[in-house]
Amino acid sequence: MSEQFVSRKFQGRRASAETQHRLPPGQHAVTDFPVLSAGLTPQVTQNDWRLTIEGLVQEPITWRWEEFLQLPRQEFVVDIHCVTSWSKFDTRWRGVSIDTLLEQVTLDPRARYVTAYSYGGYTTNLPVAELINGQAFVACEYDGKPLPREHGGLARLVVPHLYFWKSAKWLRGLRFMESDQRGFWESLGYHNHGDPWKDERYSSDY
């Protein structure tokens, strides 16, 4: 995978007294939506798009785009936090809860970790416990419109309670595993967990 890092300028602002409590340590609020990507933006069409759940499941499952859109979707309004120090309040998404996806498979009891992998080769790792019980979803819309390609369209993982590199863009699949396997940024020195409220940015932050 290319290690080219793409970033666009963003505009910061001071959080008001009403929102200051929503900023994790070291973060500042922004009004725009910065674009940060490791590598080039994949050009995946709706006809070619697939989403797969595999690994420690009784039987893998793959959805085509039209099939994915038939799954029950929800509206999500969440704050997001990037490790580069920006936070954006009240972002609005529409997508499918990870809980809904997992209703379609039977997980092996040994499945404790997940690798989220993307078109373009990006990977990130999470404990299963960080994805379930309403904590994460696969988004296909942002702010009432189809998810822009630069922000992960056609669909991306969103795990709002962790730093945003854990919310893999251009999601291609979830692989369930017994042991942890570090993803792209985790292998390059980012924190393996990534909790903004604990300031878990880099591996040295343990």
SSE blueprint:
Elements: E1 5-7, E2 12-13, E3 28-30, E4 36-38, E5 50-55, E6 61-64, H1 65-69, E7 74-81, E8 86-97, H2 98-102, E9 113-118, E10 123-127, E11 137-142, E12 145-146, E13 156-158, E14 171-177, H3 184-187
State the distance separating the first and last CA atoms.
Answer: 27 Å
CATH class: Alpha Beta
Q: Level of helix content?
A: under 10%
What's the total helix number? 3
> What best-fitting shape do the alpha-carbon axes yield?
globular
According to DSSP, the number of beta strands is: 14
Low-confidence regions: 1-12
Strand content: 25-35%
The fold-level CATH name is: Sulfite Oxidase, Chain A, domain 2
Q: Which class of secondary structure composition applies to the elements? A: mainly beta
Instruction: Give the overall average pLDDT.
Output: 91
Order of helices and strands: EEEEEEHEEHEEEEEEH
Q: How would you sum up this structure, described in words?
A:
This protein is mainly β. 7% of the residues lie in helices and 34% in strands. The chain is built from 3 helices and 14 strands. Strands 2, 3, 7, 8, 11, 12 and 13 form a 7-stranded mixed beta sheet that branches. The protein has a 5-stranded mixed beta sheet with strand order 6-5-14-9-10. Strands 1-4 form a two-stranded antiparallel sheet. The chain is globular and about 45 Å long.
